[in-house]
Structure formats: structure tokens, C-alpha cells
Specification:
410 residues, alpha/beta, 28% helix, globular, binds cobalt (II) ion
């Protein structure tokens, strides 16, 4: 069971170079489990359904009017390099295209990798067509050590504008001509993202680790969709929301600060004929699990971690707490999830950052703030966060699915 599940995650990661592909993949898994694709929230909601919006998707499994909500949120986007709208460059005979840096990219990790291109093209009718070219078409070559003599003392210094444009030929067509040849669509505009074509792999002398691009945060997207797809009906209604744009602040119609989740919460309340007062009661009794990967302790940099709150691989998902509310987890939320985890036989760890090392944030505090539904931050511990290729324990993702399954059922 565990092995099958992990391979389904590896397949997911390989199939999903962009948020658009995550949404498509989520739809495929959910459709296979009887969830109905809808294009609008204005009609009656199907008992099990989902709505896709570009790089975001919200899915639900309705319970009874007397029940509360169990929400799981995660983000579909990962830091990466994106082809600019006017990308074509010729430099000293090399064909290049210009890229824009999306989110907090570890720039060095993109050097000397064989890169594919994926995303979507939008035609004159406004229709989107996904594409993914997984054969290597581009590369960002690192400068030779002989031409960068100070690198050993100074470290690698990369200029974000000058040093990150890939080469992709010597007499290449325009990028749009190439897009037409690979998609068959006359693109008026496009979203085109670079990605490392190396597939997900198990690593370690006993394959203890999983190495892949985009573990942050597709591990959580995959786990949430697996948990929802296998959910049994109960009094409670379940919602999984996968938002785009978390890596750049969540402020968009597809981001966690947008209306996607609040709209479905309110439409479910309409369908359950809940009055204003009953809606407040429901919010108070509901829980949101905000799933986003955590930092595992790095053996070469142990001093960067709070020693008593430093998660290890394959020791279970980490509860993430932060007194300054960068994470939403309260003592009440931590206690609830600990009970859920104990019942599911899933070990939990705790992540708290050092006082002199500010932590990132997640969609948890945003959901907590805007909906008034208490959120709990949780995540699989990993290394190399925001690298083009990240690493986590190979047992933790399956434990996260079990935890989420019991969170929904509880
Ligand atoms: Co993340």
C-alpha cells in the first residue's frame, strides 16, 4: 500500500511541471473517484465536485447541514523561471530566451540542468491549451572556474537579470514559432515555465529519501487530493483547496487571499440552508489544515535550527508553530491534530524557528484571518527548499495522506 502510494506521488511530480498541470492532475484523480467537474458555483453543487480556475482548484464532498467543515489547503506553485512575453535574444551567436524569476528561487540550483518548457498557450478565442515539452531544450550554463577565479573565496554571485537566461540553440526560431510547432496552437499569449526534466527518484542506501523538483508544495497537493478521493461520507463537509501564487504572496483571484475558498464555504452554507447564526456556529466548529512543507534539520547546518524543534526525515509530518503568527497553529489546534494523528498511528514532529531566523509563512494564517475558521499548519520535513531539486523522507508523504484521511473523518 505504502509503496504504491509513493509511486503515485512520483508519477504526479513528473506529470506536473506547472500549477496548471497540478490542477489537471487533481481533476483526473478526483474524476476517477466520482467527483464531478463543474464550471460555476451558481448552480446546485454536486455532492462530490470540483471547480478548476487556471492554477487553482477547489474540491468538495458535501456532508449534512448539521455537520461542520474539514478544509485542507495547499499551494500548487513552486519558485521557477518563466519565459518572458518578448523573449527572443541573440547573444554572440547563441540563441537565448529571456526569463523572469518567479518567487524565492535558489538561483544556483538551476545552473547546468537540462531544462524542458511547460505551461499553457491561450488562443484568440481565449481558450487555454496545456503543453509540456519534457525533452531538454534549454540550459543555463555556469561560468567555468577558470573564468571566475574569486568563486572559492567570494562564493557564486549571480545577477538576476544578466546571468539566468538559458541558451536554446544557435539559430533558433522565435519562441512563439517554436510554441506553435510543439502545440499546434497560434498563441496570442502564453505562460511558459522552465523545469528540470530529471524525473523524481528514490535516493539513499535503503531508498530512504525522495528527490524531485517541486516537493514544496506538490507533496501536500498530492496528499490532500489522495485523502479527499478516498474519503467516506460523514456529517461533515470536506473541502480541498489548492491555491496558486503562494510563493509570491497569495494576492490574486487564484491565491489564498482570493475568494475561491470563501465562495465555496458560503455556497455550501446556502445549499445547507444555514441562517446567519448557524453559519457562525459552523465556522467555530470547523477546522482548516494548511499543508506546506517544513524544514528538516540539515546535518551540515545544525546551528540554523532550534535544537528542540528540528524535524527529521521519516519521523512524521511536522506541526508548525510560530508565536508571531507566521503560522496559524494554536495550542487548541495542535491538541486537535495530535489526537487525529494518534488515532491514525502517525507520529508528529514540531517545527519552531530560531528567534534569530525568521520563518516563511503559509496560506494558513490567511485562511484563518479571512474565514474565521481555525487553521493548523502542518508539513512534510524536507531539505533544499526552493531548489530546482528538493529532498524529503520517502515515508513521510504517505504518513501525511493517512493524517489527512483521519483529519477529514474526525
Ligand atoms: Co511552500
Amino acid at each position: 500500500m505504502a509503496e504504491i502510494a509513493l509511486h503515485s506521488l512520483m508519477h504526479w511530480l513528473d506529470q506536473c511541471p506547472t500549477p496548471f498541470h497540478v490542477v489537471k492532475r487533481a481533476g483526473t484523480v478526483l474524476s476517477g473517484a466520482g467527483f464531478v467537474a463543474t464550471t460555476s458555483l451558481s448552480d446546485d453543487l454536486p455532492t462530490k465536485g470540483y471547480l478548476s480556475l487556471d492554477g487553482a482548484v477547489v474540491a468538495w464532498h458535501l456532508g449534512k447541514p448539521s455537520g461542520s467543515l474539514r478544509i485542507i489547503g495547499a499551494h500548487t506553485d513552486s519558485p521557477n523561471l518563466r519565459v518572458r512575453p518578448n523573449p527572443d535574444l541573440i547573444t554572440a551567436g547563441w540563441s537565448q530566451f529571456g526569463v523572469e524569476i518567479y518567487g524565492g528561487v535558489l538561483l544556483n540550483s538551476w545552473l547546468d540542468r537540462d531544462l524542458g518548457v511547460a505551461g499553457r498557450v491561450v488562443d484568440a478565442a481565449g481558450d487555454s491549451h496545456l503543453f509540456s515539452v519534457a525533452s531538454p531544450v534549454a540550459r543555463i550554463p555556469q561560468l567555468a572556474i577558470h573564468l571566475d577565479r574569486e568563486i572559492s573565496e567570494r562564493g557564486l554571485v549571480l545577477d538576476r537579470q544578466q546571468h539566468m537566461n538559458p541558451v536554446w540553440g544557435l539559430n533558433a526560431p522565435s519562441f512563439k514559432e517554436w510554441l506553435l510547432s510543439v502545440t499546434g496552437v497560434h498563441a496570442v499569449a502564453y505562460d511558459a515555465h522552465l523545469f528540470d526534466v530529471t524525473p523524481a527518484q528514490l535516493v539513499g542506501n535503503k531508498q530512504e529519501f525522495l528527490a524531485s523538483a517541486r516537493l514544496d508544495n506538490q507533496v501536500s497537493c498530492w496528499a490532500a487530493v489522495e485523502a479527499l478521493a478516498t474519503s467516506q461520507s460523514s456529517d461533515n463537509s470536506y473541502i480541498v483547496v489548492l491555491n496558486d501564487h503562494e510563493e509570491v504572496g497569495s494576492e490574486s483571484s487564484r491565491g489564498a487571499a482570493g475568494p475561491l475558498l470563501s465562495n465555496i464555504v458560503s455556497r455550501i452554507a446556502d445549499q445547507h440552508s444555514l441562517s446567519g447564526g448557524a453559519r457562525f456556529d459552523r465556522a467555530e466548529q470547523s477546522w482548516c489544515l494548511s499543508a506546506d512543507n517544513a524544514h528538516a534539520i540539515h546535518p551540515n547546518y545544525t546551528e540554523r535550527h532550534e535544537p528542540l524543534h528540528a524535524p527529521r526525515p521519516n519521523a512524521g509530518p511536522a506541526l508548525k508553530l510560530n508565536g508571531n503568527q507566521r503560522y496559524a497553529t494554536s495550542a487548541r489546534g495542535a491538541a486537535h491534530l495530535t489526537t487525529v494523528a494518534n488515532e491514525a498511528n502517525v507520529p508528529l514532529q514540531t517545527f519552531v524557528s530560531r528567534n534569530n531566523m525568521p520563518c516563511g509563512s503559509t496560506i494558513g494564517p490567511i485562511t484563518d484571518t479571512t474565514l474565521g475558521i481555525e487553521a493548523i499548519d502542518i508539513g512534510v520535513p524536507q531539505l533544499s527548499m526552493h531548489s530546482a531539486r528538493e529532498m524529503c523522507g520517502s515515508e513521510d508523504p504517505v504518513m501525511l495522506v493517512k493524517l489527512m484521511q483521519n483529519f477529514l473523518a474526525n
